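Feature request, filed as a ticket because there's no other form

It would be nice if the structure record came with a short human-readable summary line next to the tokens. Right now we just get the raw output. Example of a typical job, pasted below so the devs can see what we mean:
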Amino acid sequence: MKRRDFLMGASLLLPVGANAWAATGAAPTRQKLVVIMLRGAVDGMNVVAPVGDANYARLRPTIGLAAPGQEGGALDLDGYFGLHPALAPLLPLWQQKKLAFVHASGSPDATRSHFDAQDYMESATPGRKNTPDGWMNRLVGLLPGAATPSRALSIGPLMPRILSGPAAAVNLPNGAAGTRADVLDRPAMGSAFDQM
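Raw output as currently delivered:
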């Protein structure tokens, strides 16, 4: 699955059920929080680009997005930021105020390690490597209403660090991980379990 296909289809995932995600408040609601973490090679300065900043075009003469209105240009978000044109299906969600971007965010920790930075982002404890759970798992534990496994849902090859911890969460493998044979799918292993 391509990232842009996932992003375009992400809005289809919102109605997974009344208990999939509840917003903080006195009682469970039908509101959802969807967090999309793109690991790997995504250039945030070309997903939501500061096209209104004169330095953007000067510093990115060959890879920067063109200004809104130009051929292949960014889609205007607010007069300063523009959305990459390949993500045009997300623009209506932005216009309906159902989508927001958190731009230029990061950790105050000065680590130069990509792996440490990723861990701190998912645990929300910069500088502390021994945090046992992820920030979303802690959030799930504080939400009102029944704590069901489907309250926190991850889609990916593995349960991400952000959801690790004592609160119930479920991971739906996708891509090759969704159809890969597991150790329990081996006949010899199944037979060994049958004998136990």
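Something like this underneath would help us a lot:
The longest strand covers residues 153-155.
Residues 3-40+106-195 form one domain.
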